[in-house]
Structures are given as C-alpha cells and as structure tokens.
Amino acid sequence: MPALNASATVVVIGAGAMGAGIAQVAAQAGHPVRLYDNRAGAAAQAIDGIDRQLGRLVEKGKLDAEARSAIVARLQPAEAIEALADASLVIEAIVENLEVKRGLLRQLEALCSADCILASNTSSLSITSLAAGLQHPGRVLGMHFFNPAPLMALVEIVSGLASDPALAQCLYETAKAWGKQPVHTKSTPGFIVNRVARPFYAESLRLLQEGAADCATLDALMRDAGGFRMGAFELTDLIGHDVNYAVTCSVFDAYYGDFRFQPSLIQKELVDAGRLGRKSGRGFYDYAEGAERPHP
Ligand code: NAI
Fold it and tell me: What sequence ranges are listed for the domain 3-hydroxyacyl-CoA dehydrogenase C-terminal (predicted)?
C-alpha cells in the first residue's frame, strides 16, 4: 500500500512534546494537520511554539519565510474532538497509560470513518492490547517517533496481532515520504529502541543510587568518553520522567516483574515531586529561567 496522499488530513491528539513535533513533521510534508489536546488552549500554544521554532530556522537561513508561513497555515488547533471526524490518519500522543489510550481509541472508532488509520505513538504499550475490543482492530498500529520528532529520523512501525499488514506498509511508506527512516517491528514490550535503552537508564540510575558518582559526572562520562549523544540523566530530563518512568513500569509489568526492568525509586521520587525534567523546569538538573546553565 502506498504512502498517504499529501492532501490527506492528519490528526494529532496530545499537544505535548511529541504531539507538537509529530504535527510539525506532518505539516512540513504538506498535510493539513489538526492538533487536539484535552487541556484547553494547549493545541494553539503548541502551534505557536512550532511557529517560533520555524522562525529560528528562518533566522539561521535554513528555511525561507514563505515555507514557514505555509507550514504554520497547515496547522490548525481543534477545540473539540468531534472536529476530527474527517481524518485519514490519527496519531495519538497522549499520556502513556493503557486504559486512557484505549478509551480514546474507542471514542475515535465511533467518530472516524472506517478507513481512517488509528496510530499510537506509545513508547511501550502493547498495540495488541490497545486494539483489543475495537470493531476494527486491524487499523490500530504503532507509529513511534523519537524525541525531538522533527529531528530524529527513526520511526518504529509497530504491528499488533490484529494489525493489517497493508496499513503497516502504508505507515512505513508515509514515514519515508515524511523524510524519516522507518522500521517494521512487532508489538513486544518497549518495541526495539526503548527495550534496548532500558538497561542504559536502569544501570545509570543504580550507579547514582549507589553513590558511584553524581549525575553530571556520569552524564559527562557517557557523553564525552563513552561516545553517547547524551547521558542518561540529561536524556531522561529531556524525555520527561513521568513518561520514562511509565515506560519502565510498563516494560517491567509486561515481563512479569523481571528485575532487569525494575523501575527506579529515585525516578519515582522525581515524578512524585513534579520534577519531570525540562518540561517542568526541573528534573535531575535545574532549568530555571535565568540559570546560566542547568545544574544538578
Ligand atoms: P507530554 O506530557 O509532553 O504530552 C501529553 C499531552 O497529552 C499533554 O499536553 C496532555 O494534556 C495531553 N493529553 C493527556 N490525556 C489526553 C486525552 N485523553 N486527550 C487529549 N489529550 C490528552 O507527553 P509526551 O512526552 O509528548 O508523550 C506523549 C506520548 O508519546 C506518550 O505515549 C509517550 O510514551 C510517547 N513518547 C514520548 C517520548 C518522549 O521522549 N517524551 C518519545 C516517544 C514517544
């Protein structure tokens, strides 16, 4: 099955870090995009943020002003979920919680046409479980982008037991048409990258808990000596501790409590304190406005 036609409407649900990035990618590829969030004003705010990001590219001479305006004009906030009925592809990027995502998918199934693809940007949840109980489970797939979505090339196209292979191919071709590097994978806990990355986070957190070194030292080592793009603490601050912790819990549960995937109490404390990382202004590091640089 070929890629989605560029004139097809793409709906993105959840206007957080990932939803905003995915909406930008789809709009840059020429799609009319509608962005919806159940937090009033969040979608419009996210579109303003995208506009500012694109403005920085214009200033650097990487994008021309006309292209910026055209991309932003293709992005529309939706104030009610009912306004999303004409979508050809919905990508949900809401909270990483199985029951909440299942509830949304049930709502979307009742709302959208039968041939609309329902994709989830979930980092770890079973696509098979997300689709279970729907009338047309074949149209539910994972389309898992990485953070920040406009910059990161990889997209995992995840098939659950019931997913239609033709639709998986359509999402694969669509991701390619959007300039991404897609990979097909099955619905296994954490899929590929988040599964492989679990020990990276878990062992870094254990080292911190054992007092081997502080997080800035550990990050600097992994980055400067280890050749990683980012250390585990700056990376989880970027991802968001609520998201990263939920992913670890979901992989841990899916593997029947396998110790290798045990969630970290240090990270749970951050979540409980609302220190979610960059998005809340503080995580392992402090991102307070005016701070010369984030510090632990
Ligand atoms: P976020 O917390 O930045 O944004 C989530 C947004 O969804 C919020 O604006 C919230 O108001 C909205 N929302 C929550 N429930 C909703 C509902 N029922 N209906 C409509 N909107 C709702 O989270 P983020 O980081 O964007 O993650 C979203 C999804 O993407 C999660 O499933 C996460 O696992 C996945 N993901 C996250 C990555 C990351 O690095 N943060 C990377 C790849 C995937």
Answer: 190-287
